[in-house]
Amino acid sequence: MQAQAQQTITDNVLKYTQMLIESLKHNYVQYAIRGHQRATDHVDYHLQRIDELKSGKCPIDYVIETGKKYHKVIFVDGGGSRSVHCFIDKQTGQMYKSSSWKAPAKGVRYDLRVITDREWLFENADWSAGYLYAR
What we know:
Mean pLDDT: 94
Structural class: alpha+beta
């Protein structure tokens, strides 16, 4: 029973990590649309980018690389450059800001197992990781 319960938590942490990624991409799309709407030059270009964004074409992505202890959420920009967005402990669901490519910063920022943390993240987490700075 103990092993099955831990496996359920581990499976849920991965599912919540994937849901977080979808929220981050949605946040980026809304951010990009606002930027294009404010533009006053080359209006046709900006209208075309808005249409692409609204149709689901997103120039950025996030990928999960799973290590021994953490899911590393990696931001991939339109040119293919990669940077670590955050680390998520596979067993506990605790989220950490990245300290480097290989290590999380000290101090848990959020816990994906906690419903209030998770709901807040899905509504408010921003694509550029500003929400991960100590509060």
